[in-house]
Every structure is written in structure tokens, then in C-alpha cells.
Design a protein that fits this description.
Blueprint: E1 2-3, H1 12-20, E2 25-27, H2 31-36, E3 43-46, H3 53-59, E4 62-63, H4 71-81, E5 87-90, H5 97-111, E6 117-120, E7 124-130, E8 133-136, E9 142-147, E10 153-157, E11 166-167, E12 174-178, E13 183-189, E14 193-199
Parallel strand pairs: 1-2, 1-5, 2-3, 3-4, 5-6
Antiparallel strand pairs: 6-7, 7-14, 8-13, 9-12, 9-14, 10-11, 10-13
Length: about 200
């Protein structure tokens, strides 16, 4: 599990994830919030521009000084190199909107290296999936779909506003939908990678 330096999650769902994570990587700016709540990260990583000196001494963080990637990517590739292949991200959103967008869409890049990715907040969950796929849902659950493939034609099942060989020509074309059953599915021609948001 990787904790980024966005809005610190407060829900019981997210707290349970933090408590039960067998390997918790904290981006350096997130350490203060973890420390205040008595969570101890397995590893602290980043360029160390956002961590106080007393926390540096306490946690002995790993410094990755190159500036071609952000701390989230440094944490992800560190874990990938250690053999981890199932990721939950917390704290991607909040504070700065530009960071939130960048962190969320970085999931598309991470999917090239690992296909088990979830970004969870107090409000919902992002997943990156390749079509075709089926996801469990609740009737009335809010669903948004984001695609960077503006040529693929998508077809859905069990969404209130169905997609029928539809191209998602903008980033907002697949947003603000709703599940109508206990699952929904998405297929496309050709197969395509999609960012799926489900609101809790």
C-alpha cells in the first residue's frame, strides 16, 4: 500500500486498510500525518523536500533525488522492484487539484507494469481495467468511466445511460453514470484500458 501526500483519509474503510497493510510505503510528505496517528510506515521514500528533520531521524527515509518523477512514482517503482504486484493507493486526491489529476492519471502509466491497482479515498475507488470486464456494484451506485483512447467503441451493460458502440471522445464523456444492478460490464472494439470510478 502506498500513501501519497494528498488529503489524509479519515473513513473507517481507509483506516482499516492502513492498519492491515502488510507493507506500507509513505511518500515523504505523508509521514507527519501517519506519525500523528501512530501509524508506522514500512518505508518512507521521496526526494525528502517535504519531511521534517526529526521525522527523517526517526524513520531513516530513502532519498530518490531525481526530479523526472514525483514521489508517488518513486514509491510505486520501489515497491515494484521489491516484487509487489497488487497496489492500493491512499491520499492521491485533495490539497492541490493539479496533483490530484496528475496522480490519478498516472494510474494509466502504472497499469503498463502492474494490472492490480486501486486508488481509494473516503469517497470512492478508482481502478484501471482493460476491456472486457465485469465489476460488482450496488444498484444506484455512481459510476464514471475515463478513457484516453478516443477511437475505441464502448458497449456497456447495467448502466443507467448505456453505451452502445460509443466513442468516449472527451474525458467527461463517460462520467456521471449509474449502476442499475449488482454488476455492470464494459466491452470495446478494440480492447482498451479504462479508468473506472465507483462512488461509495
Amino acid at each position: 500500500m502506498i500513501l501519497a501526500n494528498g488529503e489524509f483519509p479519515k473513513s473507517k474503510r481507509c483506516s482499516d486498510i492502513l492498519k492491515n497493510s502488510p507493507f506500507l510505503i509513505a511518500c515523504d510528505g505523508a509521514v507527519a500525518s501517519l506519525h500523528a496517528l501512530k501509524f508506522k510506515p514500512s518505508v518512507v521514500i521521496g526526494d525528502l523536500d517535504s519531511i521534517d528533520s526529526h521525522l527523517k531521524a526517526l524513520y531513516n527515509p530513502i532519498c530518490v533525488s531525481e526530479q523526472n518523477s514525483n514521489d508517488l512514482s518513486k514509491a510505486f517503482f520501489y515497491a515494484l522492484d521489491k516484487g509487489y504486484d497488487d497496489f492500493i493507493f491512499l491520499g492521491l486526491n485533495g490539497k492541490r487539484e493539479d496533483h490530484a489529476l496528475a496522480n490519478t492519471f498516472l494510474l494509466f502509466e502504472y497499469f503498463k507494469f502492474c494490472q492490480k491497482l486501486q486508488a481509494i479515498s473516503d469517497y470512492g475507488c478508482f481502478r484501471v481495467l482493460e476491456t472486457p470486464f465485469i465489476l460488482p456494484s450496488l444498484k444506484g451506485e455512481q459510476i464514471s468511466l475515463f478513457s484516453l483512447d478516443f477511437e475505441a467503441q464502448f458497449t456497456s451493460k447495467n448502466l443507467k445511460y448505456p453505451l452502445n458502440n460509443l466513442r468516449l471522445k472527451t474525458l467527461f464523456s463517460g462520467t456521471l453514470n449509474e449502476a442499475t444492478d449488482h454488476f455492470f460490464s464494459l466491452s470495446s472494439i478494440p480492447n482498451s484500458v479504462v479508468l473506472v470510478y465507483q462512488k461509495f
